[in-house]
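Trying the structure run again after the queue cleared.
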Amino acid sequence: MFDFLLSEEEKALKAEARRFAKEDVPSSLIRDMDGERVRFPKEFLQKAASRNLLGLRFSPVWGGRGAKWAGEVAALEEIGVLGSSLSCLYSLVSIVGEALHLFGTEEQKETYLKPTLQGKLCCAEALTEPRGGSDFFGATTLARRDGNDYILNGQKRFVVGAE
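Done. Tokens:
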């Protein structure tokens, strides 16, 4: 992202994410993941959380920073130098957390969103379906309300971010 598009605050956030990627993430992590010595890099998420770098756009009430999209994208760009595996895992917190942040109850946010932004809880996404790939608007899995419960019907192929 071109720096002239960013505010001073967003530039500072970008620099902070760059320092995190350079100084706090061991260069051996991707090799260890590739060699299956690290199966799920939970420590990576915990370190990012300890620097308050997860879910940047979410309200500070839940552990975010209330950043704008440009700031979060600039930070993600810096995390991206670590490789697609880690940047995908990093962005899952915002992708999955978005629904909770916008539509979740206070109790759901307290139970799921806050601990995720603190690095205490991991999240995953099941979008890919056997016939439609990862087309969000073409998904055929349905949730039907049944009293206080929901009945899910459909199939998923991959769960991104699962251990």
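The mean pLDDT is 94. Worth checking whether this holds up in the mutant runs.
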